[in-house]
Amino acid sequence: MRVGVLGPEGTFSQMAAEQYARRRHLNFQFFYFPDLARVMKALVQDQVELAIVPVENSQEGSLSTTLDFLLWQDGVQIQDEEVLAVRHWLWGKPGTRLDQISAVLSHHQALAQCQGWLNRRLPQAIKVLTTSTSEACAKVAKSEESLAAIAAPVAGAAYGLEALAEDLQDNKNNATRFLVLGKGSQSLRPQPGEKWKTSIAFGTPHEPGALYRALEPLARQGLNLCKIESRPAKRKLGEYIFLVDIEGCSLEPGPVSQGLIELMGRAAWVKMLGCYPAAPGGGEDE
Ligand SMILES: O=C(O)C(=O)Cc1ccccc1
């Protein structure tokens, strides 16, 4: 199966996709793209059958590029999700000492997830954004200066770099949730004992109680929400769209489909983003 991920080789996105392939017993051929927008565009243009993209980090919150794509692009559905425990290592050219490092390169999520460590241990180093963690490794490997990259424990060695420090992440439970996006409809169905999620987006009229009224049917059906987020409606300042993840599956008659029918009668508009099995490690009660 052709799968698009953020490149070059060695990103956390690829690690998440490999972990997902093992869990689902799938065989992936990877296609690498230089940014998330292009990974998702490749799906729309049928260059790949699945796109696996980060959507949310336990510390840094949501990735707006991914959310906005889901909101504004038609014909793409969330098929599944994967949660990856994210450990960051510091990589440099062999022999680099920490006190020599003038700049640390990485994806903005990685720099943010390690800011406490960086401020304590490398106060002299400036932070430089790259399009991905493995792109940071490639740049450090090519540079003449004493630079360092933050990347996965498997990433740096492939670029000829040496691990200078391990586990830089400020939060020991650092984890990122990735979405498996596809164009087809959901082919899986809930198995007994399996937890599912239904993701939707909706708009409400700009009036008192509108969000409460839209969500009230879900509460009455006894449904638990596992995420609620707002994004700008992109028309004018102060207008928002809501994205909600509901525990349960809307593909079969039951409280989720009943709650959604009522929500559709109360919201200004509703978009179904996908219905899919909840990944292990996603913060559910164990
Ligand atoms: O740059 C990467 O490796 C990515 O896949 C994006 C990312 C960065 C940091 C944590 C999770 C995902």
Automatic annotation (TrEMBL):
It catalyses: prephenate + H(+) = 3-phenylpyruvate + CO2 + H2O. GO terms for biological process: L-phenylalanine biosynthetic process. Its EC number is 4.2.1.51. InterPro entries: ACT-like_dom_sf, ACT_dom, Chor_mutase/pphenate_deHydtase, Preph_deHydtase, Preph_deHydtase_CS. Residues 199-277 form the ACT domain. Signal peptide: none annotated. GO terms for molecular function: prephenate dehydratase activity. Pathway: Amino-acid biosynthesis; L-phenylalanine biosynthesis; phenylpyruvate from prephenate: step 1/1. The record marks 176 as: Essential for prephenate dehydratase activity. Keywords: Amino-acid biosynthesis, Aromatic amino acid biosynthesis, Lyase, Phenylalanine biosynthesis. It is an enzyme of class 4 (lyase). Residues 2-183 form the Prephenate dehydratase domain. It comes from the Bacteria. GO terms for cellular component: cytoplasm. PANTHER family: PREPHENATE DEHYDRATASE P PROTEIN, PREPHENATE DEHYDRATASE-RELATED. NCBIfam families: PRK11898.1 (NF008865). This is Prephenate dehydratase. It comes from Carboxydocella sporoproducens DSM 16521. The lineage of its organism: Bacteria, Bacillati, Bacillota, Clostridia, Eubacteriales.
